[in-house]
Amino acid sequence: MFVGIDVSATRGFDVAVVDDDRRLVLLAKAKTLEATAVIAQGLPKESVVAVDAPPGPSRGLVPGGKRYRVAEEELHRMGVSLYPVPPDEATAASWMREGFALFEVLAKAGFPVFFDGAARQGVSFECYPHLTYRTLAGASRGSLSKIEWSRAALRRRVAGVPKDATQDELDAIAAALTAWFFAHEQFVGYGDPREGVIIAPAPDERDEGPLAPDQLALAIDAPTAAILASDTTTKETPFAQRVLRFVANIPPGRVATFGDVARACGKATGARAVGTILAAHPFEVPTHRVVDANGRPSPVYGGGPERQLERLTAEGVRVDGGKVDLKESRWRA
DNA sequence: CGTCTGACTGCCC
DNA sequence: TGGGCAGCCAGAC
Is nucleic acid strand B under 7 Å from A268's C-beta? Predict the structure, then answer.
């Protein structure tokens, strides 16, 4: 089985499983690391697990005392940006720390991290869905929204992708697909093996896509399936999920405007709706990192706008005259 | 369903 | 610089 896991610090783990014919056989959300561990333990030994998160901190191998990883350096040179992993675990973003923990769980379940050498089964590795999409759909996203672009990249590569899949789910499927390419010796790795590599597909030119017609079937043992079934509620709409995922990924010390979030989530004029969604999830994502187009905090932020600015100040954001310096602190994903 | 409201924006004074 | 205002989208009846 080829397994993909999308990690979110606040909303748990999305898990996708693809079989050898590239049919999606399982798509579910596990809210906790423990639930994910149960899934991992139920996997066949010869599975390959791809995770959208780093396995460990930077080892400082980039010349010049840089703090990020070699993989980030290499991808940056290719025009692919990703949030850098710091050398010290304590300052890593919470979703990164979830990733570190997940890789430990996977190792215990019989899937140690792959560092280099020939592809083999019974391993886990880091992937980056954005990079996978880029390889499969082309570098330019054009006028497509992120989710449309993601879906286009997976079309004809994986059978059985639900029409209403969220971005989290698509990312998990992209990870599972990356595991498939890895196991079929069609992959490239970025980074230094001593530190950890990011794996991306390198599709064979003769690649003809999934071999079987669309169909969904559970191929996991019953106890695991039962746990998944009880843990699969996703009440948010796809747009709301994208918004929450995006905001969850704004790093400490950076901010985004409501309009930035709306644009990144595929609805350029949906800034107001972003506010609606954040208001409904005040504790699940770092909403203090979202400010208006002038850099001002929300008048109705829990605890007051001053509290929001305090939190930002504590993260190192410069605040002046009741507003943040957007030029300096704005985050571009 | 239709209608209303809001952690928004850009544009016009 | 700042207030008014129309347009916008998701969520709540």
Answer: no
Alpha-carbon span A305 to A200, nearest angstrom: 43
Distance of CA A327 to the CA centre of its chain: 26
CA of A311 to C1' of B5 (A): 28
* pLDDT for the residue A79: 79
Instruction: Give residue A206's pLDDT.
Output: 62
Q: Is strand C in 7 Å reach of the CB of A295?
A: no
Nucleic strand C within 7 A of Cβ A237 = yes
How does DSSP assign A270-320, residue by residue?
A: -HHHHHHHHHH-TTTS-GGGEE-TTSPPPTT-TT-HHHHHHHHHHTT--EE
Residue (of A200, A165, A178) closest to A29 by Cα position: A165
CA of A136 to C1' of B12 (A): 46
Cα–Cα distance between A192 and A198 in angstroms, integer? 9
* pLDDT-flagged residues of chain A (< 50): 211-233
Q: Is the CB of A279 under 7 A from strand C?
A: no
Q: What is the CA radius of gyration of chain A?
A: 20
Coil, strand or helix at A212: coil
The whole-number pLDDT of residue A231 equals: 32
pTM over 0.90: no
